[in-house]
Amino acid sequence: MQSHEQSIQSHELSVQSHEQSIQSHKQSIQSHELSIHSHEQSIQSHKQSIQSHELSIHSHKQSIQSTKQSIQSTKPYTLLSTIQLEWKIKGVKQNIENKGNTLSDPFYVGLYKCQGYIEWNCLNADKVGVFICIMKGAYDDKLHWLIRYKYTLILLNHININNNYETLLK
Fold first, then answer.
1. What is the pTM of this model?
2. Of 139, 142, 126, residue with least CA distance to 72
3. CB–CB of 137/108 below 8 Å?
4. Which DSSP string do the residues of 16-45 spell out, in sequence order?
5. What is the CATH number of domain 78-169?
6. Which pLDDT score is estimated for 124?
7. What pLDDT does residue 41 have?
8. Which of 11, 117, 129, 146 is positioned for an S-S bond with 122, CB 3.0–4.6 A?
């Protein structure tokens, strides 16, 4: 009988051990289920973020396309408005005496690359030639040629403000 009691005790201990093992496995399963749920939420959040970025990319692509179309379809006269360029020329008296020429730094008017040019003592006379030259620029393939604009050119004598000259160039 003692052997049966020992056997029963042994089985009871074994049952307890299995019950503890089952409980431990249940806790492990719950922990994994929580982890899976957390990962699923994270995945869903990432999917939403990806969709938001895709919409943003699509919007930017449309904006870029619209800008490209606008540049390609822009008529020349819409590119220019009132542009003021201040070009301070040093050594005017020396340039006149030496019959030299003076070039400005290149600048852009709209998409047109330009450069100012002064020919001192123009045509071997007592005249000054002032020109705006269109140069080869980065946007030439987008522009309409021939250029037909009216420009107003104002020359200011900073020494005597009452001695200025304005002309309309066609």
1. 0.42
2. 142
3. yes
4. HHHHHHHHHHHHHHHHHHHHHHHHHHHHHH
5. 2.60.210.10
6. 65
7. 94
8. 129
71/92 Cα distance (integer angstroms): 39
The alpha carbon of 165 is separated from its chain's Cα centroid by a whole number of angstroms, namely 41
The DSSP-derived string for 74-93 is --HHHH------------HH
pLDDT at 73: 58
Torsion of CA 118, 122, 127, 129, to 10 degrees: -30
- Beta bridge pairs of residue 114: 107, 134
Give mean pLDDT in consecutive 10-residue pieces for the chain, a chain of 170 residues: 81 90 92 92 93 90 80 51 70 72 84 85 71 88 76 67 48
Q: CB within 8 A of 79, min separation 6: which ones?
A: 109, 110, 111, 112, 143
